[in-house]
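Sample intake sheet
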Amino acid sequence: MLMKTLPNDPVILLSTINMKLRDFYSSLDALCEDLGESKEEITEKLSSIDYQYDENRNQFV
């Protein structure tokens, strides 16, 4: 089962996650906890397009 409230397309997901991290959440863990999403599913989906989470920047790069 892939994410419930987030886009399935990896490029749109990237944009959505980075916007939410920038505007609303101090970390990927906080975002996942608040939205009830799987950190592993998000990171796996975005790694498929060569993006990794950078904790210092609080975004996928």
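Comment: The chain has a mean pLDDT of 93. Residues 6 and 12 are 9 Å apart (CA to CA).
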